[in-house]
Design a protein that fits this description.
By secondary structure, this protein is mainly alpha-helical. 64% of the residues lie in helices and 3% in strands. Helix 4 packs antiparallel against helix 8.
């Protein structure tokens, strides 16, 4: 239910999001609340009472990638599509060129750059990576495996 119904609704359009730390925290809280309700309470063997699952227990029980890994993967896939579109397309100009001119941290291009660096692609930008599809797929898999705090 969570993967089939809730995640697609929550992650609609996440390819172009630039989240602040507050928004990331709110998404993490939302994910843990939903998983806590789906998985239900746990009976404490020592005290004999029912209790809510802790975040670590939820992560252990829920074996699918968390919401941030899915967002990063979708963002990297969309970055590849945008980079291959070419400079004449409006999407390319809005998402790539505007991010190159502005040096703020809360931009789409900055998020892509940070994801590439965390995955080990330091000397290559998303434009160069998009041209090499095999290498891009390798880095998308690496991004999916990144540990998200």
């Amino acid at each position: 239910m969570f993967i089939d119904i809730i995640l697609p609704v929550v992650l609609y359009g996440c390819e172009t999001w630039s989240l602040t730390l507050r928004e990331e925290r709110r998404l993490r809280v939302f994910e843990n609340r939903v998983l806590g309700r789906i998985l239900g309470p746990k009976r404490d063997e020592v005290a004999g009472k029912w209790r809510k699952l802790h975040d670590e227990e939820l992560n252990d029980l829920y074996c699918s990638p968390n919401i941030f890994r899915l967002m990063k993967s979708r963002r990297m896939r969309w970055a590849g599509h945008v980079a291959r579109m070419g400079e004449r397309r409006g999407v390319y100009r809005v998402l790539v060129e505007s991010n190159l001119k502005e040096k703020t941290r809360c931009r789409w291009g900055y998020n892509i750059k940070m994801n590439l660096q965390k995955a080990g692609c330091r000397g290559m930008g998303c434009i160069e990576l998009a041209q090499d599809r095999d290498r891009r797929r390798t880095f998308m898999n690496a991004v999916m495996n990144l540990q998200v705090p």
